[in-house]
Amino acid sequence: MQDRCATSAKVREAKFPPYSPDLAPSVFHLFRRLMKHLAGHHSRTDAELQEEVVKWLRDLDPDFFYAGFDRLVYRWHKRFNNHGDYVEK
Asked: InterPro entries from the entry (predicted)?
């Protein structure tokens, strides 16, 4: 169904590699900050680590997420304008 709709609407699919770290918000925005937050933090159990991560996520300002989406849109445009080539930092 999706293919038929895309074909009839003359929509072309953008071909990107299955994993693009430059386009993965979890990599370029979220995990980098999380790793910085957890630096020096030692958890004795998985549950303790999970609790710390959940607390960190809940304490984030909503603007953090808006900024991540803004950066993602910028990277999408940059990738598109580079004809699908990898986007540098």
From this structure: RNaseH_sf (IPR036397), Transposase-MT_Hybrid (IPR052709)
Residues 6+ apart with CB under 8 A from 52: 38, 41, 43
Rounded to whole angstroms, what are the CA distances from 53 to 16, 30, 67? 30, 11, 20
- Count how many domains the chain has: 1
CA distance to 1, 50, 56, 72, 85, per residue, from 12 (Å): 15, 41, 39, 21, 17
Which tokens sit at 76?
A: 């999408």
* Residue 76 domain-assigned (yes or no): yes
Give the structural domain span for 66: 25-81
- Between 43 and 81, the more confident residue is 43
